[in-house]
Amino acid sequence: MSAVNKPVNQKAWFLILPVILCVAFSAIVPLMTVVNYSVQDIISPERRVFVGTEWFVAVMRDSELHSALLRQLLFSLAVLAVELPLGVLLALSMPAQGWKSSAVLVVVALSLLIPWNVVGTIWQIYGREDIGLLGHTLHQLGINYSYTGNATDAWLTVLVMDVWHWTPLVALLGFAGLRSIPDAYYQAARIDGASKLAVFRYIQLPKMRGVLMIAVLLRFMDSFMIYTEPFVLTGGGPGNATTFLSQYLTQKAVGQFDLGPAAAFSLIYFLIILLLCFILYNWMQSVGTQNPEETGHA
């Protein structure tokens, strides 16, 4: 009874107080500012008019926004469709231990260390016909390639650039998941005479499900907010071929200085990301529940 009535020491909350203050100033305060702008017409720094939900209605009816959203969804789905299996394949082919494993890990992670604007500059040079290896090689093969003049070439170049930059992240997460599998699982599979495909299906893939879920969520959120690389590479062109949602938002806020519509759109953008990630996470959870680990069938 004395243990039940023992007072609880609440002083530990003071330890997280700095974190709460940092989050308040770095996230909550800017968010409230955006909410404030989204319901006002900013005529000048001194003059503002309350417009309610007018900007939200205008943004939702914007046909350019609909096109940018569709373009963004297709790009994010294409990124997942390519990077996920490619990253898993790369993780499976990496050495498990020894100096070779360390060397391969360093080499694979190199592209992750390159800043986003530098990645765009690298591929901008790489795709040029006069000095770029990719552009010059395709030109010599008789392929008419131009990421600055052809919408399909520009979109595919941005996709390949993102795959080159971020597939190692999926590979490293998959490698970590593979290294967490006890050797006893593989020993039992060898005793049962399981094939490599059966080992992958019933042992490796179920054990990697957790890290792959993290990889899917990270890559989806990051690709859905992509900005720097396509901006440096193509500037959103040709036309609007590579103008994704983040660039469309920047054009609204900075290029046209429509702070009210831009604030309303940023809130809608934020809610879209939350909703899609929530749907994706629950779908992956349901798939994991319907297909539990069945290592005994290897």
From TrEMBL:
The keyword Transmembrane applies. The keyword Membrane applies. It is found in: Cell membrane. It is a multi-pass membrane protein. Residues 69-280 form the ABC transmembrane type-1 domain. Belongs to the binding-protein-dependent transport system permease family. The chain crosses the membrane at residues 12-35, 73-92, 104-126, 163-181, 210-228, 262-281. This is Sugar ABC transporter permease. Keywords: Membrane, Transmembrane, Transmembrane helix, Transport. Pfam families: BPD_transp_1. PROSITE patterns: ABC_TM1. It comes from Curvibacter cyanobacteriorum.
